[in-house]
Amino acid sequence: MNPLLTVENLTVHYGAIQALRGISFSVNQGEIITLIGSNGAGKTTTLHAISHIIEKTSGTIMFNGANISALVPDKIVGAGLVQVPEGRRIFANLRVHDNLEMGAYLRKDHAGIKQDIEMVYNIFPRLRERFHQLSGTLSGGEQQMLAMGRALMSQPKLLLMDEPSMGLSPILVDEIFGIIRRINDAGTTILLVEQNAYRALGIAGRAYILETGEIVQSGSAVDLLRDDRVKNAYLGTS
Question: Which domain holds residue 202?
Answer without folding.
Answer: 5-91+156-235
